[in-house]
Amino acid sequence: MSESENVSKNATPQEETKKETTSVEDKYTWMVRPCEIYKDEYNDCTSIRARFHQYFVFGEPINCKQWNTDYKNCKKWNTYKSKEAYVS
Q1: 60: part of which helix (H) or strand (E)?
Q2: Is residue 60 part of a domain?
Q3: What integer pLDDT is reported at residue 81 of this predicted model?
Q4: Structural domain of residue 56, as residue ranges?
Q5: CA distances from 32 to 16, 46, 52, 53, 54 (A)
Q6: Which residues touch 77 (CB under 8 Å, ≥6 apart)?
Q7: Is 55 among the domain residues?
Q8: pLDDT for the residue numbered 38
Q9: Is 1 strand, coil or helix?
Q10: Which residue, 43, 48, 53, 54, shows the most beta carbons closer than 10 Å to its own?
Q11: What global pTM score does this model have?
Q12: Residue 80: CB partners within 8 Å, gap ≥ 6?
């Protein structure tokens, strides 16, 4: 019997739950970009040049708040591993 199988059989229910929770988080962690990308996207979206382009293409400036929200959630996730930030 391998060591990993032995450890798995001796794991407590709390450890099993922790493994399941961790695996769910790990499953989607690859989708979270580095926080600087969200900040750059927000800055690009709110720049004068982008606002002019948005007005020209759409007739009005677009809402850039989601980039800022994503940046804040990314910071919360990286700093505190906040589940609330992870799911929003």
Answers
A1: none
A2: yes
A3: 78
A4: 31-80
A5: 25, 22, 29, 28, 26
A6: 32, 85, 86
A7: yes
A8: 96
A9: coil
A10: 54
A11: 0.64
A12: none
